[in-house]
Amino acid sequence: MYKIERPLRWLLLATVLAAAPAGAESAAEKIAKINESIAILTAQKAELELRAQIANKQAEIGKSSAGGAGYAGGGMARQATAGGHDIGLPVVRSIEGMDGRLVAMLAFPGGLMQRVKQGEKIHGDWTVADIGTHSLTLTRGREIVRLGPPN
Does domain 68-147 have CATH number 2.60.40? Predict the structure, then answer.
């Protein structure tokens, strides 16, 4: 369980007791709820960190097995054009967020990292059309590319 330093725990208890109106739930019940919330949030944070580590490891494996190319929908990344230069599409390093507000961290060839939200542009002509819990969809005109971890 998440530990709170002793003085902070007493301050929290005093605040809860002072704010409790007569007939409301007891201070012990409120503290139990707070501790439960802390435990849940800590577990969620650990899960997100683990998912990010898995995505990073899958991207590393994908780079070594595909000769350094990223993945697009489980296959080798297609080439995008930006400023007349061919560049590989990014690899999804992580997807995080809550309540439908997801943000993806993308890694481009050459080491460039970019944090994107739905609706943002990358390379000036690709639009982040959708970010799901396991993949990201880019569009450019009629082209649609799904980026995600290797299959």
Answer: no
